[in-house]
Amino acid sequence: MSAAWTGELELEFAKRNQQTVLTRNYTVAPWKVQRSLYPEGEEICHCIILHTAGGLVGGDRLSTKINLQPQTRVLITSAAASKIYRSTGEETIQNIHIHVGEGAALEWFPQETIAFAKAKYHQKMRVDLADGATLIMWEIVRFGRTAMGERFIDGNWRSHTEVWRGQNPLWIDRQYLHGNSEMLDSPNGLDGQAIAASLVFVGATVEPELITQIRSIWEQGDYQGTAGVTRSLCGLVCRYRGNSSSEARHWFQQVWQLLRVFYSNKAICVPRVW
Q1: Exposed, middle or buried, 239 (CB in 10 Å: 0-12/13-18/19+)?
Q2: Which helix (H) or strand (E) is 56 found in, with range?
Q3: By the 8 A CB rule, do 191 and 225 touch?
Q4: What DSSP designation does 203 have?
Q5: β strands within the chain, DSSP E
Q6: pLDDT at residue 53, rounded to an integer
Q7: Read out DSSP for 65-112?
Q8: What are the C-alpha distances in Å from 20 to residues 50, 134, 136?
């Protein structure tokens, strides 16, 4: 394995006339911004992030800071799936801090993360929303390289996400999975499935009728996993557990479509790298 990385990524977006523009792009390897695209016109900037090392190793320390100035609209995704390699000692630590300015909207859609057996990973994410700002994000994690018959044994996965508006917490989610057979097979754990995924929308009240529509999409679809939808005081959360990352993403994209129309009256535009 290669030596550990200390990577930094700092992005800032601003409104120039009617266009959302990437005005600051500072990276320290292994981070790189592949490019910014405008498949929906100048209002929404699609930003594609690349991890040039191909995967994260024990001891990596990665920092991401993103600032959306008022009224900007940004979609951020990754160029490929992320891999968390097994570690013989140290954790991989990733810190993410995002500020979404007044009236701005962030869509945070990294591609699937694959956690190898014996991986040790800890992600801390904090998002600060200004008045009128919204955030929709998802996380899709495959535990173990299931195509090789690998199970997530002896690993640790920790993910701590907080979303705040001023002094008020809007969403706090702490996840911890310790790789062992009991967790992998328990109904209170992965229940024999390989993938756990979450979609979270925060920043605006979601009407009960929209929750009903989202649940109907799942109930009427030909899905093999299990799922749930919960309405919060300032948004909603969707959970998925199953064996297909494409199934999770297909459902999430339909949820995203409903929410896009709800909060911006605009249809989704799937990033070309997917």
Answers
A1: middle
A2: none
A3: no
A4: S
A5: 6-16, 19-28, 31-37, 44-51, 61-68, 73-78, 82-84, 92-100, 105-109, 113-115, 120-129, 134-143, 156-165, 168-178, 195-202, 226-232, 235-242
A6: 86
A7: EEEE-TT-EEEEEESS-EEE---SSPPEEEEEEEEE-TT-EEEEE---
A8: 20, 16, 18
Strand partners, 5: none
Residues in the chain: 274
Judging by DSSP bridges, how do beta strands 134-143 and 105-109 pair with one another? parallel
Helix (H, G, I), strand (E, B) or coil at 201: strand
Q: How far is CA 83 from CA 54, 114, 117, 120, 240, in A?
A: 7, 5, 11, 12, 20
> Among residues 13, 39, 26, which one has the least CA distance to residue 273?
39
Contacts of 149 (CB under 8 A, 6+ apart): none
Rg (CA), the chain: 18
d(CA 258, CA 266) in angstroms, rounded, equals 9
Q: Which phi and psi angles does 84 have, rounded to 5°?
A: -110, 105
How many Å apart are CA 186 and CA 147, to the nearest integer? 21
Neighbouring CB atoms inside 10 A of 195's CB total 22
Is residue 135 very low, low, confident or very high in pLDDT (cuts 50, 70, 90)?
very high
**What is the distance in angstroms between the CA of the first residue and the CA of the last residue of the chain?**
28
Domain ranges of the chain: 6-264
C-alpha to C-alpha distance for 192 and 198, rounded to whole angstroms: 18
d(CA 252, CA 240): 9
* Cα 240–chain centre separation: 13
- The predicted-structure confidence for 244-274, as pLDDT tens digits, reads as follows 999 999 999 999 999 999 888 999 999 989 8
Q: What is the pTM of this model?
A: 0.95
